[in-house]
Amino acid sequence: MTTRRAFLVGLGGLALAGAGFVSGAFREARAQSDLRLYGRATVIDSRAGALEYAVAGHGPPLMMIHGTGGGFDQGLLFAAKLRQRGFRIVAPSRFGYLGSAFPDDASPAHQADALVDLLDNLGIDRLPVLGGSAGALTAAEFALRHPDRCSHLGLLVPAANLTNRDPVEFTALQRLAVGAVLGSDFAFWSLSRLAPGQMIRTLLATDPGLLDQVSEDERGRARAILDQIFPISRKVDGLRTDGFWAGTPSPTAYERISVPTLILSCEDDLFGTAATARLLAERIAGADLTVFPTGGHIWLGRDAEMADRIVGFLRAEAANG
């Protein structure tokens, strides 16, 4: 009995030690996320309230609008290769993300109007505007509503409901997992470490098997995109709003967009943006479309290729203009 009691006490001690380790690791992760974001962004007052943004790089300005689960930091990451190619990146946090407000009207159209205030604050008259995933909804509205401020439009893996059917169909298990992580920083952090492949498949809509086929730099980019979603508690309003607008039949009059437009996607994007990209190319007059065979929703293994395609498009349009 004494031996058994000692064994059980030992197990209890290990469990407590393990719980303490996990709790400490979680607190450290929260602290690191705060340090990663601290001091990197600026907040201004816009017509919709607080608007957070960051600027990085030198050269002609280019706005990168982040996707679901992001913030200004994801915008900077999406545009890292463009920054290396000589652009000054303007990366806002959309409504409900990080330090930006969450107004009653959190529509992509209202967000687009608020971004005009950002350009005015920065003294930028006109620039190319790119939007990734759900950020493409805002980018398209910006080009439609403010063509005098948008020189070029780029829609990257665009999330939009163009067929009166939500292109993202989760299984019951996936809906359960998404609901769990949306409600808890700890749940998201735990699942990201226990099942990173499943999180990449479910939240980033990318086959984790691609990780074995790309460079270490690209694997690191995938990990960074996933890690940047944390802490999810500072993004819940934005995430839920994105889910609504990406799944609701789109009210955007894409056929009225008049600025030069580039549309990029990947055939194996698990959110189905390749089909959306083709439909958008049919609706936007003169749109330039490229669908890569692989890369998933985060264009894994295609980051440099995507940047080259964007730069080539901007330069060709500038030469034609």
Describe this structure in words.
With 321 residues, the chain is an alpha/beta fold. The protein has two domains: 38 residues; 213 residues, Rossmann fold. 49% of the residues lie in helices and 15% in strands. It contains twelve helices and eight strands. The chain has an eight-stranded mixed beta sheet with strand order 1-2-4-3-5-6-7-8, sandwiched between helices. Strand 1 and strand 2 form a beta hairpin. Helix 7 packs across helix 8. The chain starts with a helix and ends with a helix.
Could you give the topology of this structure?
Elements: H1 2-37, E1 42-46, E2 49-56, E3 61-65, H2 72-78, H3 80-84, E4 88-92, H4 108-122, E5 127-132, H5 135-145, E6 150-156, H6 172-182, H7 185-194, H8 196-203, H9 216-228, H10 236-247, E7 261-266, H11 273-283, E8 288-292, H12 303-320
Parallel strand pairs: 3-4, 3-5, 5-6, 6-7, 7-8
Antiparallel strand pairs: 1-2, 2-4
